[in-house]
Design a protein that fits this description.
Oligomer: heterodimer
Number of helices of chain B: 10
Strand order of the largest sheet of chain B: 4-3-2-6-7
Distance between the termini of chain B: 88 Å
CATH class of chain A: Mainly Alpha
Helix content of chain B: 25-40%
Strand content of chain A: under 5%
Number of strands of chain B: 14
Largest sheet of chain B: 5 strands, mixed
CATH topology of chain A: Amino acid/polyamine transporter I
Distance between the termini of chain A: 34 Å
Order of helices and strands of chain A: HHHHHHHHHHHHH
Radius of gyration of chain B: 27 Å
Number of domains of chain B: 2
Structural class of chain A: mainly alpha
CATH superfamily of chain A: Amino acid/polyamine transporter I
């Protein structure tokens, strides 16, 4: 049940979807895809972008009221959140390791993790209107901030040649690179379905499409910036290519501000937190449909963030986390996406028969 | 006070407490307890596998009176230690210091050309992997790194600052990308021989001499003439000057600026590279007594184009003879068509076609 207070606006819907998708890969982007396909990673990025748009288009404004189908989607969502929750842990580990490597050298891990998880849990336990407000306020700020820094970084693009695919294309590598990005495609359907339950008016196709489009144009812009600056060969030796690249933006003469990139990195920490808040909110919302007790959201938010806190505290290195991501979570995400595609196909068939029946009755 | 107010107070207190952990105070150290390294010089050591590291520090004054009383010669000091790698050198330096070593302010890394290229790569890789070092410092090659980093040029009080500014000011006649991250990217990218500026100590100052190629084995120093050829062949000229003799009269063309257009073709297993260079420049001196300016300008343009071509060709010949590629053409081919490129650097199947187009422009108030 949704009250007027806890609904999402259309803008909130789009921006929350954007944050949810971007948060899933930002800090390691575009390392894994370039490792898999080198210079031709741009093809895989294009294919994945198309894949994302296809998922957004395949989602109906509201799921058909077939009980069995709804049940199947509920099971799918549980599976999806299990995969995505673990991917989130990997992102938290990577983020914390990055902060410790570049900025907070001596700060203990728990001191970084605790406020981060506490803020995520606290905001996610609030009613959905809070999430709506957070997304509408912060996402545009973070976007514009990143854009300004990106414009400054553009003078570093030395290798525009590497932004185009190579004349020799290894199809297998491109397919592999696309599969590697499954963990970034997985949140699309989950987010769109989860947010659609409490939007003021059922989201139109355009509204559903905007979130994934914004997210992927942001990721594409970052890809062009990083690969054009570092080239595909050197990039794969770094753990956080974007952070490394932004670290090199120096304004020697401007009032001793030498590391402009720091601003955007702290902004992105906020962006990741926002993405995670939306994820926990969606998990809480889907649990609420099962157990209608008013405390459900709070309990879910508390337990998920606690789980993240301890998982991130005891994951030894970001290298372990990326191995987990590539060897276990990616196959799981592909499995999830396969089932999702099959169910969406069934939805499409039901809708077609439904509309043809409606036409016949006319 | 209602019960709800207490809850808010508790939440607020908790938030402040948690946020306090993020202020960076765990890392907080007053500046007088830090020893900020401003320059590092690396020379070969007495034994193979050992290197002499020179670290330059500013003399951090602790009281206001000591600022006034520190003599100019003691404002900076340097330590030299012998170590096998950068990490060992840091620890050896720390053992001689009461202040904590701080690596975020390095502006200059000077390496001796007698240090093998692989060791250069290893040192930069260490810098990339260590978070505190920001790779915006400049990397230069020299014959004696210790004397270069310790040198206080007459134009500046701070030793390494002048050289850092020289290389990052965009005011040099040819541009060599010398920031550490850029040099590192070249090292990790196959198909290019990384280049760094070659700087020498001359009397009480430094001078930019040419480029050092980090060829496999040991770095190779290119003389200034070939450095100009390299700069013209790759479009790295910022403000070139050429003097040609036209009918016995010297004519100087300055402010030469331009770019390269590269294209690759694979013909019967041969790689044909077309490097078309487009340059523009201004008549700086001479040429007034040569008669009709229209025809004279064309003749001067042809003469300058032919001079640029000769210089570029000589640089290409030098690279081919030594099996190096400072132009990055092997890399560009690899990025265009990976199937045509061979692993490693080999000029055997290559045919380099250089063409130069030169135009006189913006001749100013004199003509």
């Amino acid at each position: 049940m949704t009250t007027a207070d806890s609904r999402m606006s259309r803008v909130g819907f789009v921006l929350a979807a954007t944050a949810s998708i971007v948060a899933e890969g930002l800090f390691v982007w575009p390392l894994h895809v370039v490792v898999a396909a080198g210079q031709n990673a741009i093809l895989a990025v294009g294919i994945t972008g198309g894949w994302t748009v296809a998922i957004a288009l395949a989602h109906p404004a509201a799921l058909p009221s077939v009980p069995r189908l709804r049940h199947a989607f509920r099971v799918l969502d549980i599976l999806g959140w299990m995969v995505l929750g673990t991917v989130d842990t990997v992102m938290i580990v990577s983020l914390m390791a990055m902060l410790k490597t570049f900025y907070f050298f001596e700060t203990p891990l728990w001191a970084l993790l605790l406020p981060f998880c506490a803020v995520v849990g606290w905001a996610a336990a609030k009613p959905r209107a809070t999430v709506n407000r957070l997304a509408t306020f912060w996402v545009p700020i973070l976007f514009v901030g990143s854009l300004i820094v990106a414009l400054m970084a553009m003078s570093h693009i030395h290798y525009p040649r590497t932004l185009l695919p190579n004349q020799a294309v290894d199809g297998k590598a491109v397919v592999q690179a696309t599969a590697v990005m499954a963990y970034m495609v997985a949140p699309v359907g989950l987010t769109l379905r989860g947010l659609a339950t409490s939007v003021q008016t059922p989201p139109t196709t355009a509204v559903r499409l905007w979130g994934p489009l914004l997210a992927w144009s942001f990721l594409l812009a970052l890809y062009l910036l990083v690969v054009g600056t570092l080239g595909p060969n050197a990039l794969i030796h770094l753990r956080w290519p974007i952070v490394f690249m932004l670290d090199q933006i120096t304004l020697d003469s401007a009032f001793f501000i030498s590391r402009v990139g720091i601003a955007v990195i702290f902004g992105w920490t906020l962006g990741i937190a926002l993405g995670l808040i939306i994820h926990v909110d969606l998990i809480g919302e889907s649990a609420q449909t099962q157990w209608t007790h008013p405390a459900t959201r709070g309990v879910v938010a508390g337990s998920v963030t606690c789980l993240w806190f301890f998982a991130a505290l005891f994951t030894t290195t970001p290298a372990t986390a990326s191995r987990l991501l590539l060897s276990w979570l990616d196959p799981a995400a592909i499995g999830y996406l396969g089932i999702e595609a099959a169910l969406l196909f069934i939805v499409a068939i039901i809708r077609r028969t439904h509309t043809s029946k409606a036409k016949e009755s006319d | 006070m209602r019960a709800g107010d207490h809850r808010w107070l508790a939440w607020g207190a908790l938030c402040i407490l948690l946020a306090a952990g993020l202020t960076g105070c765990w890392d907080q150290r007053p500046v007088e307890t830090r020893a900020a390294v401003t320059a590092i010089g690396i020379d070969p050591g007495k034994h193979p596998g050992l290197y002499r590291f020179t670290f330059v520090f500013p003399n951090v004054t602790t009281t206001t009176t000591s600022i006034a009383t520190t003599p100019a010669t003691q404002e900076f000091f340097h330590y030299t230690v012998s170590a096998a790698n950068l990490a060992d050198a840091f620890s050896a330096i720390q053992r001689r210091q009461s202040r904590v070593l701080y690596l975020g302010q390095i502006r200059l890394l000077a390496l001796s050309t007698r240090v093998p290229s692989e060791v250069w790569r290893r040192f930069l890789q260490t810098a990339v992997q260590s978070g505190p070092m920001v790779l915006t410092f400049v990397v230069v090659g020299t014959s004696n790194a210790q004397s270069l980093v310790a040198l206080v040029p007459p134009s500046e009080v701070v030793p390494e600052l002048a050289l850092y500014r020289t290389l990052t000011c965009d005011c040099q006649p040819f541009l060599v990308a010398s920031r550490a991250w850029h040099v590192w990217v070249q090292m990790e990218t196959p198909g290019i021989t990384p280049i760094v500026p070659q700087v020498m100590v001359h009397e009480d100052n430094y001078v930019l001499r040419g480029i050092d190629l980090l060829a496999p084995g040991r770095p190779v120093t290119w003389p200034l003439a070939d450095t100009w050829g390299w700069a013209y062949a790759t479009g790295h000229v910022h403000e070139g000057t050429v003097t040609v003799n036209e009918r016995g009269e010297p004519v100087t063309v300055g402010r030469i600026l331009g770019h390269q257009d590269l294209s690759f073709h694979v013909l019967d297993g041969r790689i044909v590279l077309n490097d078309h260079l487009r340059y523009t420049g201004q008549l700086v001196a001479g040429g007034d007594a040569l008669g009709n300016p229209i025809t004279t300008d064309r003749t001067i343009e042809r003469a300058v184009a032919s001079r640029l071509l000769t210089m570029a060709q000589q640089a290409v010949k030098r690279a081919q003879a030594s099996g190096t590629d400072p132009f990055g053409w092997h890399r560009d081919l690899h990025w265009t068509d990976a199937s045509a490129a061979s692993p490693g650097l080999s000029w055997r199947r290559w045919q380099v076609r250089l063409t130069v187009q030169f135009l006189l422009q913006n001749e100013g108030v004199l003509r």
